[in-house]
Write a structure and sequence with these properties.
Distance between the termini: 55 Å
Structural class: alpha+beta
Oligomer: single chain
Radius of gyration: 25 Å
Largest sheet: 10 strands, mixed
């Protein structure tokens, strides 16, 4: 078994920690996978399993494993599903769902992405080499397994999801993709609102350096990202790695695309997936559930009952096997509201929002309006200091939304106790009926800074009779190159969500300048004023089902 995990001759010698973990993973494989450690063949009734090295470039081989279903041979080729491992994860990540796929008739081939663990090469962050690797892995499967060249699919979580979308855009042999907790627009994922998502970027960087060999290009990207240097180059680098850049190719190739993410995904927020979904013209499906990055898929990786993986298998069955299982006749947009139990189906993403609650920001609260007239408003201003955390925040990556997913406890604050010196607060009247927030809320506000650059974060809360606010959605906003003391209009798109606000509760908008999720750009001793000029009133528009 150890020989199969040896590094290819051209690759650097592995760190001791990675070598020890490889031995642990081999032991786990021997325990979890029938036949491993012996003849490497399952029982006659089950799929066979083996570890393989897949050469993808001179001196570079990817560590992989492959299940082949019983009865598959040259005369009876089987559909194949390629499963790239997640960021910093080894190929055994998918050992359970891959076996389940094999038991239902698929060749399931999963591999450790280039640069991670014992795979050769360097981490390129879904760059051109990683995309080329996908086609070479498919070539290997066609040459070394009884794979059906007309029935090739991809499925994966996180990094594997993004690679699946990029692969389908570049290789027309791929007929179906299930992208779970992936990204479409890498720029919007890591730099939404021109604000660095520092916790998620730091987590990915640390994991990458601990488990792999980052390329010099990746290291330079991290420097530019954290220092806001060379922003045009940073955006160009990210665009090359964004499936949204290649949506026309994806549509032309025709692969059926299933997207599944969490509302609270702190690495790949929902807005960019919803926009990408709207641009697809192929058979498509979009699912959103409570949780954080990859947390909805984790139970399925362990073999537990799981909606995401069940739908993934149904999607692959429909578009690789031709099974008439009805998944293509369901409403293609399937959402599960936060803190609630059931799914809702919609014909399109835009159908989530049936109406909007438009609320104009007033000096001492909100006043409800109909459509906002351009000359409405009385004019007012409220100023807050910067660089002090008010207590309003989006939480901690993974932990906060995981708690909400399983305990139904979202991030909370006491709205009356928020310090008004560093937090601007507006509240609506009590809502006469339950308000089902569905989609993307938009904020328009006039900002007067004392410096040329700055950051603020807008939070929308559901506030009960005791003043306890439960976070509905939020978004950061950073600006550069403004003139001090000169007002400008800021338009903020908050993160898409599905949240039911009970009757009798209020909505509260809170704006402050510090959130540990983000890297803020407020100079010391600066402040921000928020106003509503008569000619351009400030407002927030909340989408309702």
């Amino acid at each position: 078994m150890r020989e199969r995990y040896e590094r290819t001759p051209a690759a650097p010698r592995p760190r001791r920690a990675r070598t020890r973990l490889a031995a642990v993973l081999a032991l786990l494989a021997a325990l979890l996978v029938p036949g491993v450690g012996g003849a490497q063949q399952a029982s006659a009734a089950g799929p066979s399993f083996r570890f393989v090295d897949i050469p993808v470039a001179p001196g570079v081989a990817l560590k992989a494993n492959v299940y082949v279903p019983a009865g598959a041979d040259a005369a009876h080729p089987a559909p194949v599903v390629v499963m790239p491992a997640s960021w910093s994860m080894p190929t055994l990540e998918y050992v359970v769902p891959a076996r389940q796929l094999a038991e239902s008739g698929y060749i399931a081939l999963s591999y450790t992405a280039r640069g991670f663990w014992l795979s050769g090469g360097e981490i390129g962050v879904a760059g051109p080499d990683d995309v080329a690797d996908i086609s070479r892995v498919i070539d290997w499967a066609l040459a070394n397994t009884p794979a059906d060249a007309s029935r090739i699919g991809m499925a994966g979580v996180s990094y594997g999801a993004g690679l699946g979308l990029l692969g389908a855009a570049h290789d027309p042999r791929i007929k179906a993709v299930a992208a779970l907790s992936g990204w479409a627009d890498l720029v919007d994922s890591i730099y939404m609102g021109q604000t660095q998502h520092v916790q998620s970027a730091a987590g990915l960087a640390v994991a990458g350096y601990l488990t792999g060999r980052p390329s010099s290009e990746f290291s330079q990207f991290l420097v530019d990202f954290l220092t806001t240097a060379n922003v045009p180059e940073l955006i160009a680098w990210a665009n090359v790695r964004s499936p949204a850049t290649y949506v026309d190719r994806l549509n032309a190739n025709g692969a059926a695309v299933m997207l599944a993410n969490a509302w609270g995904d702190s690495i790949f927020p929902p807005n960019q997936l919803a926009e990408f979904y709207g641009r697809l013209t192929v058979p498509k499906r979009l699912e959103f559930r409570p949780g954080d990055h990859a947390t909805p898929e984790i139970p399925g990786l362990a073999g537990l009952p799981n909606d995401t993986w069940a739908n993934t298998r149904a999607w692959l069955d429909r578009y690789l096997k031709g099974t008439d299982n009805g998944i293509d006749r369901q409403p293609p947009v399937q959402i599960k509201p936060r803190l609630e139990g059931g799914y809702e189906g919609y014909a399109d993403w835009a159908d989530l929002t049936g109406s909007r609650l438009d609320l104009r920001l007033g000096d001492n609260g909100w006043s409800r309006t109909g459509p906002l007239a351009p000359d409405a408003g009385t004019g007012w201003s409220t100023r807050i200091g910067t660089n002090v955390d008010s207590g309003a925040n989006g939480g901690i990556i993974f932990l906060t939304n995981l708690v909400e997913e399983y305990l139904r406890i979202p991030p909370t604050v006491s709205v009356p106790m928020l310090p008004r010196a560093v937090a601007a607060v507006w509240q609506s009247d009590r809502l006469a009926a339950e308000s089902q927030v569905r989609g993307t809320a938009n904020l328009h506000v006039t900002v007067t800074p004392t410096a040329s650059q700055g950051t603020f974060i807008a939070y929308l809360y559901d506030v009960d009779a005791l003043g306890v606010g439960r976070l509905v959605t939020h978004a950061p906003y950073t600006f550069f190159g403004k003139q001090a003391w000169r007002p400008f209009a800021a338009d903020v798109e908050l993160l898409a969500t599905a949240y039911d606000v009970p009757a009798g509760h209020r909505l509260a908008l809170v704006v402050d300048t510090v959130d540990l999720l983000y890297l803020e750009q407020n100079p010391a001793l600066s402040s921000l004023a928020f106003g509503s000029p008569a000619a351009d009133p400030s407002w927030i528009s909340v989408p309702l089902r």
